[in-house]
Amino acid sequence: MKENSVSYVLDTSAWLTLIEDEGWAEIVQSLLEKAGAGSIKIFTSFMSFMEVFYITLQERDIDEAKIRLNLMGSLPITRVESTEPLGLIASKLKAGYRLSVADAWIAALAEEKGSILVHKDPEFEQLEDTLSVQKLPYK
Question: How confident is the model at residue 116 (pLDDT cuts 50, 70, 90)?
Answer without folding.
Answer: very high
